[in-house]
């Protein structure tokens, strides 16, 4: 039996010498993305599902823009580095998280 997707992702992250914190974060975001879409394999999903997830983070979970960008980068890594699917021409547009305003 072959390796699971997130194990392959972990191997790719380690091969590229990313920090352990980045590895944990990217694996966590990839897992949340998959679970959010009812455990569908990312190869069956694309632009629409990515936009839905990122919009959900901004609108329902009220994450910061930095957190939303981190989730997006993790998903990009999953598609481009692990699944070898380029998203460069996809023009992914999600509702962006709002900056906190401190008075």
Strand content: under 5%
- Count of domain modules: 1
| Portion of residues within helices | 55-70%
Largest sheet: none
Order of helical and strand elements: HHHH
CATH class: Mainly Alpha
InterPro entries: CB (IPR044068), Integrase_recombinase_N (IPR010998), Integrase_SAM-like_N (IPR004107)
Protein name: Phage integrase N-terminal SAM-like domain-containing protein
Organism: Arcobacter roscoffensis
Domain Core-binding (CB): 1-83
What does this structure look like?
It holds the Pfam family Phage_int_SAM_4. This is Phage integrase N-terminal SAM-like domain-containing protein. Residues 1-83 form the Core-binding (CB) domain. With 103 residues, the protein is mainly alpha-helical. The protein has one domain (5-82): Tyrosine recombinase, N-terminal domain (DNA polymerase, domain 1, Orthogonal Bundle), CATH 1.10.150.130. It has helices at residues 5-15, 20-36, 47-59, 65-82. The protein is globular, with a radius of gyration of 14 Å.
């Amino acid at each position: 039996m072959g390796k699971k997707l997130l194990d392959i992702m972990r191997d790719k992250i380690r091969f590229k010498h990313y920090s352990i914190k980045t590895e944990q974060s990217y694996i966590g975001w990839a897992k949340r993305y998959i679970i959010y879409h009812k455990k569908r394999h990312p190869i069956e999903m694309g632009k629409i599902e990515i936009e839905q997830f990122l919009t959900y983070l901004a609108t329902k979970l009220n994450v910061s823009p930095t957190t939303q960008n981190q989730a997006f980068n993790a998903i990009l890594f999953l598609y481009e580095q692990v699944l070898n699917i380029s998203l460069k021409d996809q023009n992914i547009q999600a509702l962006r998280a709002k900056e906190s305003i401190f008075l």
